[in-house]
Design a protein that fits this description.
This protein is an alpha+beta fold. Helices cover about 40% and strands about 35% of the residues. The chain contains four helices and four strands; from the N terminus they run H-E-H-E-E-H-E-H. Strands 2-3-1-4 form a four-stranded antiparallel beta sheet. Strand 2 and strand 3 (about 50-60) form a beta hairpin. Helix 2 (about 25-35) runs antiparallel to helix 3. The longest helix is centred in the last third of the chain and has 15 residues, at about 65-80. About 15% of the residues are buried.
């Protein structure tokens, strides 16, 4: 079994959308780091004044569960004027299948 297969059950997808501003990536990364959640992959872009980011994170050694993470990310999103969502990788794959 590969490392990717081993952690697949604990992976989450975090998406961020909103007006671009300094510190968005740092703020999201700080919440993840504070909760011992490892970022596995990250992609971000700015389209005109809009910031978009999606990342895959491993919650295997996390101090919190997905519901608590969602609360923290929602609070950050409200503070920064962003839409931030987190969902289990399996749910994301199910919702975005062809």
């Amino acid at each position: 079994m590969t490392n990717q297969q081993e952690t697949a059950g604990s992976r989450v997808i975090v998406s961020v959308l909103g007006e671009d501003r300094v510190g968005i990536i740092a703020a999201v990364a700080n919440i993840l780091a504070d909760n011992n959640i490892n970022i596995l992959d990250i992609s971000q872009t700015t389209m005109q004044e809009f910031f978009t980011m999606i990342l895959i994170a491993d919650m295997e050694k996390s101090k919190i569960d997905l519901a608590a993470l969602k609360v923290q990310l929602d609070q950050l999103g409200e503070k920064l004027g962003l839409k931030i969502d987190a969902q289990h990788e399996a749910a994301f794959r199910y919702m975005h299948r062809l």
